[in-house]
Amino acid sequence: MIPPTIRNWLIDMDGVLVHEEVVIPGADTFLARLGELGMRFLVMTNNSIYTPRDLSARLRASGLDVPETAIWTSALATARFLRLQRPGGTAFVIGEAGLTTALHDAGYTLTERSPDYVVLGETRTYSFERVTRAIRLVAEGARFIATNPDASGPTPDGPVPATGAVAALISMATGVQPYFVGKPNPLMVRSALNALDAHSENSGVIGDRMDTDVKSGLEAGMFTVLVLTGSTAAGEVDRFPYQPSLIAASVRELGEQLA
C-alpha cells in the first residue's frame, strides 16, 4: 500500500521509465497519472554526461514528455555539493557537457593548475592524458570528487567502463579515495528533494536497483518502491539486508495503485 501522505516522487530513469532509450510500457501513462493527481516528481539519474535539456529532448524523442526542470542528475548534485562546500572554487574536470555546464552554473572555474578539486564524471571517451593529469593533481593535494560509483554502463554492444571504474584507477595510482556524490549516497536524494522543495516524509523513491535506488531512498528516510523492469530481479530482493517499502512489476502497475 502506498501511504496517502506520499505526494512527491523521485523516479530513476534507466530501467524504470526507459531502457536504452526505449520507453518501458506504461511509463507515459504513469507520468500522466501523476499529473492528474497533482503529484510532483523529478526524474533522477546517476548519468552525468547530459544536461537536463539534453535528457528532456532524448526522453521526448522516446515518447516521454519530461520538462528539463523535472530532471535531476548526479552532475547537478555534484555542482550543488561543491557550491555549498567551497563557493567560487576551481576544478579540473573529466566529463562532458552535463558536468561542465552544471559546475559553470554553480560559479566554478575549470582549470588544470592547482585546482581545489579533481571532479570525475562519465564520458564517452576517457583520455589517458587527462586521467594522468588527474592522478598528478590528486597526488599534489587536490580533493577528489566523483559524480557516481557506477563501475560500468550499458550499451547495445555490451557494458563499457563508467565513472566508478576510472575512479578506481585514479585511486590505485594515488592511494586517495573519491567522495561519490551520486546514488547510493543519500546526499543525491536529499539534493533532489531540495530542488523539488519537498520533504522526505511525504516523498517516495522509485527505482530498479536495490543497491542504489532503494538504498539511497531508505537512508534518506523515504518510502521506497522497487520496480522489476530493470537491474534487480524479484528473486534477488531477499538477498539484501534491507527491503523496499513496496515492490511493483512496473510503473504501470504502480500507477494503478495511486490515489
Task: Give a description of the structure.
The chain has a domain at 75-180: 3-Layer(aba) Sandwich (Rossmann fold), CATH 3.40.50. It has helices at 27-36, 52-62, 74-85, 97-105, 128-139, 163-174, 186-196, 210-219, 251-257; strands at residues 8-12, 18-19, 22-23, 40-45, 71-73, 90-94, 109-110, 117-120, 143-146, 152-153, 160-161, 179-180, 203-207, 223-227, 246-248. The chain is globular. The longest helix is centred in the N-terminal third of the chain and has 12 residues, at 74-85. Strand 8 (117-120), helix 5 and strand 9 form a beta-alpha-beta unit. The N and C termini lie close together (11 Å). The mean pLDDT is 96. It is built from nine helices and 15 strands. The strands form four sheets. A six-stranded parallel sheet has the order 5-4-1-13-14-15. Strands 7-6-8-9-12 form a five-stranded parallel sheet, sandwiched between helices. By secondary structure, it is an alpha/beta fold.
